[in-house]
Amino acid sequence: MSGYLSIRNLTVCLKSGAPILRSVSLTVSAGQVHGLVGESGAGKSMIGKAVLGTLPRALHVTSGEIWLDGVNLLSLSQTERRKQIGATAALIPQDPLTALNPSKRIGPQITRRLVDILGWSKTKAQQRALELLDEVHIPNATRVMRSYPHELSGGMRQRILIASAFAAEPKLIIADEPTTALDVTVQKQILRLIAEMQQRHDTALLFVTHDLGVVSKVCDTLSVLYAGKVVEDAQMNRFFMRPIHPYSAALLAATPTYTDPTGSLTPVPEHVIEYVEKEVAEHDVRAAR
Amino acid sequence: MMYEIRDLHLSLPDMTRKPLLGAAPRIEILKGLSFDVPKGAVLGIVGGSGSGKSTLGRAMLRLLEPTGGSIHFAGTDITHRTEDQLRGMRQRFQMIFQDPMSSLNPRRRVGGIIAGPLRLHGMDGLTARVNEALDMVGLPQNFAQRYPHELSGGQRQRVGIARAVALRPDFILADEIVSGLDVSSQAQVLNLLGNLVKDLGLTLAFISHDLSVIRRLCNRVLVLHNGEIVEESETATLFDAPQAAYTRELLAAIPLPDPYQPWG
User: pTM for the complete prediction?
Assistant: First the structure.
């Protein structure tokens, strides 16, 4: 299998059989950033959850393969799979306030992973945590380790989650809308930081976002999703110059840009929705055969 | 003038630093703002988180009482009016909220949600008014029978708009109303709001952290930073020649969907 993470024909369904992801395939290599874009409900977060084994109970994988570090996760037992994921992958979540435990100090929340999962000594883990906080440009790391989440700003909390994600040197990081809760100036700092960390650690990064502006700043390649189906796979520059699928083009046209003086905004047109819905329906017919 | 605001101050007690006994220290959130909103204007209010933009909006609607300065609405001083004194006027200034999921009662149907404020303001012909409001926001009339959870994000936000316009207000405050929506529904809601302003002769204040959205909709922009106005200008001027350093920083931080944008 080429690539660090390789997903092959992944289909995820509700118990009723209604598909949430439809034969999704994608590859992310070491040192590469792959974007997953689409509107809400398109299934972009579900791909990340399927990889990390954190799909909601109501959903299950019905077919396909998820290759992580040369191992097909779906062929492993539950325990083996968890071990493999814990050792190789990590998540940068969307909302730093809900991802951190409000009643615990920052330090133990970063070191716990290292101590519990990787069996490091407390001192070694603590040392590593301090280094990491330094790496994500947090001043006064010793004091921050002793702080509670509510004492820190949104940008600081997101930095801590980034540090925590990189703590165990994962080969793959999944970032699920990591800057949606932040304002633009902080967003810029955080995106730069993620890019810097990703390059320094040569990590494969799967970047989930609904913001095409953000994609154009951080990704090398991307997949556009509609109703759980990949409608376009593209190399980043080509995508913004010449989107191939009409839905991708419509999504780009609907994205507001302050540089356009007319400021016109076009919602995704009806006929494009019909076109892409038809593709989805045809896919389902083929899949049912 | 719809609004004349002079030297507006607002401070709130900082409960995180309240000593066990005694009063909490106060944090100054608005530090002396002065500006006018002419009739028919679409005013954009931008700023980073914590800049005081939502607090300003809430003070304008007198959901918060200013600690200093004055607010005149259509010539009337409303700075320190009591709730009783305001009640008769409230129908004239309305608000659309950021998150339609938490600002629409999940146990009531859309029709009931829109009719609620109409009833409180003693209006008659409720069904006709509800239907008219649904028409204005481009929702079919049978949506009156639906519950909020049956609607998409964009449709829910239309219900929020319908509830505000049904009262035929003079002024509407929209606080980050598209930040939770996908780009396509965002475009629809913005186009709708732009048309309603024109058709109904509304005055609108539009709070947003997204300057791209502001450019689409507003003719004047107020940039807030740490509770102070750092820039106030025509929309075109703001984008072509931003004066304040903070405005330039804000503009430069916006990621455009263009891989060749110099962004650092």
Answer: 0.87
